[in-house]
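Dear support,

I submitted the protein below through the web form. The confirmation email said the job was done, but the results page showed an empty box. After a refresh the structure appeared. I'm attaching both so you can tell me whether what I see now is the final result or a partial one.
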Amino acid sequence: MINNSKITRSGNCGIGSVGGFFTFPSSSTIYGISNNHVVANLNSCAVGDTITDAFNNPIGKLTNWFILNSPGQVNYLDAALFELTPGPPPISWQMNGDVTKPKGFIEPRTNGGVYMITPRGTQMGVITQTYTNQLMNFQLCNQPFLFTHITEIAPKQKAPFSIPGESGCIVFSSNQCIVGLIIGTNLDGSRSYAIPFVDGILKYYPLIIA
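What the results page shows now:
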């Protein structure tokens, strides 16, 4: 299994992606990361729920998720973890160049170059806001949720940086570090948005890159 490959779960509103693979301190168990709205069904879930790949093959069990606040309340995080089923297929990171895994985590930087590799190919972008301070409305599984303190990315190519179905993809910096986790894009595709790891996910989960 590779990072940013397609995953889904029963009862969810659509397909998303597994961004990457992590362990916790003093543990060898490997976890995949995605969004709540991809694998935790907007909080309508339970520990142990089955996560599958795009071909409906079981690949893991849901273990952790950030609660999404009700419509009208502010959210900062949209992420969830699932324990990967031991055994084949092995995990691997697809990244630019000859890098075999991320070199660490890095905070988003204004005008910093970023990329992600998806089934569409390599998507290049630039950070236009490190941590947004305005309230932004996202439609997740056809329900409205407000977010702030997220990272804004503009595409460097004509196509959008991210599209529906790529929620949960991990965004890398130009120096091969993890920046954020995609949650969605705006209506015209001119901006994509990611949950930051530094001053975001890592404040709650002490993840170690697997």
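Response: this is the final, complete result; the empty box was a page-load delay. The longest strand covers residues 121-129.
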